[in-house]
Amino acid sequence: MKQRILLFDAVSCTGCLSCVTACSMAHTGAVSPASSRIHISFDPFENRWPAVYCRQCTAAPCAKVCPVEAIRLDERQEYWYVDYERCIGCMLCIDACPLGAMFYDPHHDQVIKCDTCGGEPACVKVCATQALAWGDAADRSLYRKQKGRR
């Protein structure tokens, strides 16, 4: 199985937050940064806009810690998602994620994570600088080379 993930180039990101807006719109129909599955914030020490989002870990510590198995692989086993019919809101997954990519959405009182929009990420479609791409996890270094960096 080829694992597809979001690829991010912090150097190309301008911090416009179009990805955050597109993500919240795709999932809730409203512009709400708290409901976005991707978070962008300025790092003044690096002079960049790093992104925090689920990397679709193979080991998936968030899924392993879930007492009701609410974090599941999709049918094609390409991405992890939260099954809200099962989720009991214990938030153990938030603490388990080593990337800090599981979030709590206070507007909907639930944990959220990137589900890749089912394989067609809204954030990638709106990224004007192509700082975000959708590709094979093994091509992570290839993406940076194509962008002219190592």
Strand order across the largest sheet: 1-8
Question: What name does CATH use for the topology?
Answer: Alpha-Beta Plaits
C-alpha Rg, in Å?
15 Å
Largest sheet: 2 strands, antiparallel
> Averaging pLDDT over every residue, what do you get?
90
Count of DSSP-assigned helices: 5
- The CATH architecture category equals 2-Layer Sandwich
Query: What oligomeric state is this?
Result: single chain
SSE string:
EHEEHEEHEEHEH
Structural class: alpha+beta
Strand content: 15-25%
Low-confidence stretches: none
Report the helical percentage: 10-25%
Q: What's the β-strand tally? A: 8
Shape: globular
Distance between the termini: 26 Å
Domain tally: 1
CATH top level assignment: Alpha Beta
Question: Can you tell me about this structure?
Answer:
By secondary structure, the chain is α+β, with helices and mostly antiparallel strands. The protein has one domain (about 5-145): Alpha-Beta Plaits, CATH 3.30.70. The protein is about 20% helix and about 15% strand. It is built from 5 helices and 8 strands; from the N terminus they run βαββαββαββαβα. It has helices at about 20-30, 60-65, 90-95, 120-125, 140-145; strands spanning about 5-10, 40, 50, 70-75, 80, 105, 110, 130-135. The strands form 4 sheets. Strands 1-8 form a two-stranded antiparallel sheet. The protein has a two-stranded antiparallel sheet with strand order 2-3. It is globular and about 40 Å long. The two termini are about 25 Å apart.
